[in-house]
Amino acid sequence: MKKEATLKDIAKVLNVSPATVSRALHDDYQISKSTKEKVLALAKEMDYAPNPIALGLLHKKTHIVGVIIPDIAYHFNSSAISGIENVLNAAGYSVIVCQSKEDFRKEAVHLKNLMLGRTDGTIISIAHNTKDFQHFSTSIQKGYPLVFLDRAPPMEGISSVTIDNVEATKQATTYLIGLGCRNIAYVAGPEGLEIGKKRYEGYLKAHREAGIKIHENYLVHCKFDHSMGKNAVTKLLLKKPKPDAILTINDRIAIGTMAAIRAWLLHFYPLNDQICNEPDSFHVF
Amino acid sequence: MKKEATLKDIAKVLNVSPATVSRALHDDYQISKSTKEKVLALAKEMDYAPNPIALGLLHKKTHIVGVIIPDIAYHFNSSAISGIENVLNAAGYSVIVCQSKEDFRKEAVHLKNLMLGRTDGTIISIAHNTKDFQHFSTSIQKGYPLVFLDRAPPMEGISSVTIDNVEATKQATTYLIGLGCRNIAYVAGPEGLEIGKKRYEGYLKAHREAGIKIHENYLVHCKFDHSMGKNAVTKLLLKKPKPDAILTINDRIAIGTMAAIRAWLLHFYPLNDQICNEPDSFHVF
DNA sequence: TTTATTTACGTAAAGGTTTGCGTAAAATAG
DNA sequence: CTATTTTACGCAAACCTTTACGTAAATAAA
What are the C-alpha distances in Å from A126 to residues A101, A149, A191, A236, B35? Predict the structure, then answer.
C-alpha cells in the first residue's frame, strides 16, 4: 500500500511547519495569503486528505457506529440495516455490522469489541435467548451510547426504538374483524417470548373491545426455525370451527402459514384436469 | 463516555514508565518478575485493553474490512455478508457495510471513503450500471487490496470470487434436459448485462451438447425491478409450443416467474368448488 | 525614535502505543 | 577489588493531526 500524503510531507516540501499547513487547510487562523495558497495548491496536487485514524486518536471519535443483529439474512434485519446505513452515511458515519446468530455470548463479545474498538455507539437488536443483561448495564454505566432496536431488554433508563406490540396486533385484529372474520386464530412464536405475549395481548384486546369471544385452542406456538411454523398451523386447520383468518407473530411465520395453507388447499382442492382448457406439461421447480 | 484505562494511567500508579508497562504486558522483553506481576495485576484490575486507534496509527492497520454491495436487502448480498462477517470476525476483523444502491457514483464515493478511512481492504460487488472502472484502477494502483465478489469488472490483474456463469447454467439446463424437458425457455435480466449473456451461453451450450434445437423466441428479457420479471414470463406462457421448463437468470426472477405461473394456473385451472370435501371460508392475506 | 500592536509562523504537547537505544545498577567473572 | 557482563528500566522517536502558547518580525501609533 502506497503511503498517503501527510501534513508533514507537505510541510517538508514547502519548508514550513506542519502546524502552518494545518492552519492553511482550515483557513480559520492567522496565516498569510501567499502561504495559504501555496499549501492549498500543493495539498490538492498531492491529493492530501487528513488521516482519520490520527483524528480519531485526537478527538476520541471514530465516526463509526456498530450494529448488532441476530442474523443479517433475516429480511427485517437487513432492511433495518439498509435504513441505518443510509441515514448514518449521509451524516458522515460508517456502520460496522455484527451478527449474534441469536447467541447471547456472541452478542456480549461483539458489544465488548465494539466498545473496545471505540465505535461512537451501537444499535442492537438482542438475541432472543438473552436473559442476562449485565453486558448492557456495563456499557451504559460507562456512558457508552446504546440504542435498542425492535427487541429491547426490560431495563430502566435505556433508549430503544420498538413498535407498540400490543397496539400493532390490536389494529391488525380489528382490521380482520372489520372484514367480517369471527374465527381468528393466532400463531405465536416460542413459548415465553416477550414479544409473543405482547402481541397476543393486542389480539385479545381487539376481540374484547369488539365483544367477540375467542374459540378455545385458537392459540398455537411454534419455534423460530426453518419450518417457519408450518407444522403448528396444520393443527389450526383441523379445529372446529375452522378459523376464517390467521394472525401470526411475524412475517416469517406468516410465510410458513401461507405455505401450510397452500399445501392444505392442494390436498383438499386438487387441480381438476377435467376443466383444463389449456394444453399442459409445465415444470416448476 | 468514561475514560478507559491507558498505559500511562497504569504507569503513573506504579511509578514506572509507559514503556515498562508495555513490555510487561507483552512479556517478551527484559523485565523483572516483580514488576511484571504488579503491572499484570493492576492492568487486570483497571480492566485495561490497548487502544485500537493508537495501534492503528502505529501499524497503519485498522483490522476493518469494507464491503460494498448494491443492496443489503437482496438475499444473495445479505447471505454473502453473513459469511464474510463470520470468517472475518473469527480472524479478528470487523466489517463495514456500504450500499451502492446500484448507483455507480455512490459506489465510487464509498470506495474512496473506505480507502481514506484506512480500511485494510474492500470486498465489492459492483453496481450493474458501472461502466467506468477508473475508481478501481486508482485503488489498485495505490496498492489498496480490492476483491470483487460475484460481479467483477472486465479488467486485467484483479482478484475476484465469482461463479463460472457459463458452467452454472449449463449444468442447470443439462439437469432439466435429463428430466425430459425439451422446451426450455430462458428469462434473462436486462439486455446487455454481462452475466445474463454468460448464463445464456451456458444454456445454449447444454442444448448444443445434447443435440436439442431451441425454439424461436424462447429468450425473454426483463428488468431487475419490483415486478421480478412477472410480465416477461407471461409472454413465454403464450408461446407455441408452450415451454415445459423455464430457466431464469437468478433467484429473484425465479420468484417472479413462479408467481406468474401460479397466477396463470389459477386462471386456467380454477379451484373447483364441486369437489370440495371440506367446509370453507378461509382468509389468507 | 520609541512603544504598542498586529501578523505569521514555529514549538511543543496531547492523544496511546511500541521499540531501538542508552544507562544506571546489579551480578558475575577474573 | 576491578573489569566485564547482564538486568531492568527510562528516554525519545515514530505514527498524524490539532491547538494553546510563545516569539520574531513587521507595522502602526505616539
Answer: 10, 8, 17, 30, 42
Tell me the C-alpha distance between B151 and B71, whole Å: 13
Bond into B243 cis (ω within 30): no
Q: What is the pLDDT of residues B65-106, one digit of tens each?
A: 999 999 998 899 999 999 999 999 999 999 999 999 999 999
- Find residues 130-169 of chain A whose CB sits inside 8 Å of chain B: 141-145
The whole-angstrom separation of Cα B226 and Cα B223 is 9
Question: Nearest residue of A to residue B265 by CA position?
Answer: A271
- CB contact set of A124 (below 8 Å; sequence gap of 6+): A66, A67, A68, A69, A107, A111, A146, A147, A148, A149
Contact criterion met (CB < 8 Å) for B99 and A82 = yes
Q: Nearest nt (C1') to B23 (CA)?
A: C18
How many other CB atoms are there within 10 angstroms of residue B254's CB atom? 18
Give the global pTM.
Answer: 0.86
B271 part of contact set with chain A, CB < 8 Å? yes
Tell me, what's the pLDDT at B272?
Answer: 58
For B273 and C17, how far is CA from C1' in angstroms? 78
**B186-190, B268-272, B278-282 — most confident range:** B186-190
Q: Which amino acid is at B39?
A: V
- CA A34 / C1′ C8 distance in Å: 11
Pairwise CB contact (< 8 Å): A269 & B271: yes
Q: What are phi and psi of B183, to 5 degrees?
A: -120, 75
Chain A residue whose CA is closest to B273: A269
Look up cell 445454449; give the residue. Answer: B204
SS (H, E, C) A97-141: EEECCCCHHHHHHHHHHHHHCCCCEEEECCCCCCCCCHHHHHHHH
Closest by alpha carbon to A188, among A221, A215, A166?
A: A221
Q: In chain B, where does DSSP find H-type helix?
A: 7-14, 18-26, 33-45, 52-59, 75-90, 104-116, 134-141, 165-178, 194-210, 230-237, 251-268
For cell 432439466, the residue is B176
* Residue B120: CA count within 13 A, CB half-sphere: 14
Amino acid type, B184? I
**Bond preceding residue A241 cis, omega within 30 of 0:** yes
Contact map slice: A 192-251 vs B, CB within 8 A: 242-246
Compare CB distances from B85 to A62, A99, A143 and report the shortest one's residue: A99
B33 touches strand D (CB under 7 A): yes
Average pLDDT, chain B: 89
Give the three-class secondary structure for A94.
strand
Q: What share of chain B has pLDDT > 90, as a percent?
A: 68
For Cα atoms A176, A165, A157, give the angle at the middle one, nearest 5 degrees.
165
Residue A166, C-alpha cell as written in the block: 400490543
Residue recorded with cell 412464536:
A189
